[in-house]
Protein backbone atom coordinates (compact mmCIF):
# COMPACT_ATOMS: atom_id res chain seq x y z
CA UNK A 1 0.00 0.00 0.00
CA UNK A 2 2.84 2.37 0.78
CA UNK A 3 4.27 1.96 -2.70
CA UNK A 4 0.92 2.88 -4.25
CA UNK A 5 0.56 5.88 -1.95
CA UNK A 6 3.96 7.18 -3.04
CA UNK A 7 3.15 6.67 -6.72
CA UNK A 8 -0.33 8.19 -6.43
CA UNK A 9 0.93 11.19 -4.46
CA UNK A 10 3.64 12.01 -6.98
CA UNK A 11 1.32 11.54 -9.96
CA UNK A 12 -1.40 13.73 -8.43
CA UNK A 13 1.08 16.45 -7.51
CA UNK A 14 2.19 16.45 -11.15
CA UNK A 15 -1.44 16.54 -12.35
CA UNK A 16 -2.18 19.44 -10.00
CA UNK A 17 0.88 21.35 -11.18
CA UNK A 18 -0.09 20.74 -14.82
CA UNK A 19 -3.62 21.95 -14.08
CA UNK A 20 -2.31 25.14 -12.50
CA UNK A 21 -0.02 25.69 -15.47
CA UNK A 22 -2.89 25.24 -17.93
CA UNK A 23 -5.32 27.37 -15.91
CA UNK A 24 -2.78 30.18 -15.69
CA UNK A 25 -3.35 30.73 -19.42
CA UNK A 26 -7.05 31.51 -18.89
CA UNK A 27 -8.21 35.09 -19.06
CA UNK A 28 -7.88 36.33 -15.52
CA UNK A 29 -10.56 39.01 -15.33
CA UNK A 30 -13.78 39.85 -17.12
CA UNK A 31 -13.80 43.49 -16.09
CA UNK A 32 -16.59 43.08 -13.54
CA UNK A 33 -15.81 44.16 -9.99
CA UNK A 34 -15.24 41.18 -7.71
CA UNK A 35 -14.94 38.66 -10.56
CA UNK A 36 -12.05 36.32 -9.76
CA UNK A 37 -11.81 35.23 -13.39
CA UNK A 38 -11.98 31.91 -15.16
CA UNK A 39 -8.71 30.62 -13.71
CA UNK A 40 -9.66 31.03 -10.05
CA UNK A 41 -11.55 27.79 -9.37
CA UNK A 42 -9.38 25.48 -11.47
CA UNK A 43 -6.31 26.83 -9.69
CA UNK A 44 -7.97 26.46 -6.27
CA UNK A 45 -9.01 22.87 -7.05
CA UNK A 46 -5.52 22.00 -8.28
CA UNK A 47 -4.00 23.56 -5.16
CA UNK A 48 -6.36 21.43 -3.06
CA UNK A 49 -5.30 18.35 -5.04
CA UNK A 50 -1.64 19.15 -4.42
CA UNK A 51 -2.29 19.81 -0.73
CA UNK A 52 -4.11 16.48 -0.26
CA UNK A 53 -1.35 14.67 -2.16
CA UNK A 54 1.35 16.23 0.01
CA UNK A 55 -0.60 15.21 3.13
CA UNK A 56 -0.89 11.63 1.82
CA UNK A 57 2.82 11.58 0.98
CA UNK A 58 3.79 12.91 4.42
CA UNK A 59 1.45 10.50 6.21
CA UNK A 60 2.84 7.56 4.24
CA UNK A 61 6.42 8.57 5.03
CA UNK A 62 5.66 8.85 8.74
CA UNK A 63 3.84 5.50 8.85
CA UNK A 64 6.55 3.70 6.86
CA UNK A 65 9.08 4.53 9.57
CA UNK A 66 6.83 2.90 12.17
CA UNK A 67 6.03 -0.35 10.35
CA UNK A 68 8.62 -2.19 8.34
CA UNK A 69 6.69 -5.46 8.10
CA UNK A 70 5.25 -6.73 4.83
CA UNK A 71 1.70 -5.62 4.13
CA UNK A 72 -1.28 -7.70 3.12
CA UNK A 73 -3.23 -6.57 0.07
CA UNK A 74 -6.24 -4.51 1.11
CA UNK A 75 -8.33 -5.29 -1.96
CA UNK A 76 -9.60 -8.68 -3.06
CA UNK A 77 -9.86 -8.25 -6.83
CA UNK A 78 -12.06 -11.33 -7.11
CA UNK A 79 -14.82 -9.93 -4.88
CA UNK A 80 -18.21 -8.92 -6.22
CA UNK A 81 -17.72 -5.33 -5.04
CA UNK A 82 -14.57 -4.86 -7.10
CA UNK A 83 -16.27 -6.39 -10.14
CA UNK A 84 -19.10 -3.88 -9.67
CA UNK A 85 -16.59 -1.01 -9.59
CA UNK A 86 -15.01 -2.21 -12.84
CA UNK A 87 -18.44 -2.62 -14.42
CA UNK A 88 -19.46 0.92 -13.46
CA UNK A 89 -16.17 2.21 -14.88
CA UNK A 90 -17.05 0.57 -18.21
CA UNK A 91 -20.56 2.04 -17.98
CA UNK A 92 -19.05 5.53 -17.47
CA UNK A 93 -16.92 5.16 -20.59
CA UNK A 94 -19.97 3.99 -22.54
CA UNK A 95 -21.89 6.99 -21.15
CA UNK A 96 -19.30 9.39 -22.56
CA UNK A 97 -19.43 7.70 -25.97
CA UNK A 98 -23.23 7.60 -26.05
CA UNK A 99 -23.43 11.25 -24.96
CA UNK A 100 -21.14 12.31 -27.80
CA UNK A 101 -23.43 10.51 -30.25
CA UNK A 102 -26.96 11.05 -28.91
CA UNK A 103 -26.83 14.06 -26.52
CA UNK A 104 -27.19 14.40 -22.77
CA UNK A 105 -30.75 13.31 -22.03
CA UNK A 106 -30.83 9.90 -23.79
CA UNK A 107 -27.33 9.09 -22.54
CA UNK A 108 -28.19 10.02 -18.96
CA UNK A 109 -31.40 8.00 -19.03
CA UNK A 110 -29.43 4.92 -20.13
CA UNK A 111 -26.57 5.66 -17.71
CA UNK A 112 -28.77 5.86 -14.61
CA UNK A 113 -30.59 2.65 -15.55
CA UNK A 114 -27.30 0.82 -16.20
CA UNK A 115 -25.74 1.98 -12.92
CA UNK A 116 -28.81 1.01 -10.92
CA UNK A 117 -28.84 -2.44 -12.52
CA UNK A 118 -25.10 -2.82 -11.86
CA UNK A 119 -25.68 -1.89 -8.21
CA UNK A 120 -28.28 -4.64 -7.89
CA UNK A 121 -31.54 -2.69 -8.10
CA UNK A 122 -34.23 -4.76 -9.80
CA UNK A 123 -37.53 -2.95 -9.05
CA UNK A 124 -38.73 -1.49 -12.38
CA UNK A 125 -40.83 1.26 -10.83
CA UNK A 126 -37.95 2.45 -8.64
CA UNK A 127 -35.52 2.35 -11.57
CA UNK A 128 -37.93 4.31 -13.77
CA UNK A 129 -38.77 6.96 -11.18
CA UNK A 130 -35.16 7.45 -10.16
CA UNK A 131 -33.99 7.67 -13.75
CA UNK A 132 -36.60 10.25 -14.75
CA UNK A 133 -36.15 12.14 -11.47
CA UNK A 134 -32.37 12.46 -11.72
CA UNK A 135 -32.40 13.37 -15.41
CA UNK A 136 -35.26 15.83 -14.94
CA UNK A 137 -33.60 17.46 -11.94
CA UNK A 138 -30.36 17.99 -13.85
CA UNK A 139 -32.27 19.36 -16.84
CA UNK A 140 -34.30 21.81 -14.75
CA UNK A 141 -31.35 23.05 -12.70
CA UNK A 142 -28.91 23.50 -15.54
CA UNK A 143 -31.10 24.32 -18.54
CA UNK A 144 -34.12 26.08 -17.07
CA UNK A 145 -32.65 27.80 -14.00
CA UNK A 146 -29.03 28.43 -15.01
CA UNK A 147 -29.51 28.65 -18.78
CA UNK A 148 -26.71 26.19 -19.56
CA UNK A 149 -26.85 24.31 -22.85
CA UNK A 150 -26.54 20.59 -22.18
CA UNK A 151 -24.15 18.56 -24.37
CA UNK A 152 -25.47 17.86 -27.85
CA UNK A 153 -24.72 14.70 -29.79
CA UNK A 154 -23.81 14.15 -33.39
CA UNK A 155 -27.13 12.57 -34.27
CA UNK A 156 -29.47 14.76 -32.16
From TrEMBL:
Any matching Pfam family: TctB
Keywords, alphabetical: Membrane, Transmembrane, Transmembrane helix
Chain segments annotated as transmembrane: 7-26, 38-57, 86-119, 125-150
Domain DUF1468: 7-151
Protein name as it appears in the record: DUF1468 domain-containing protein
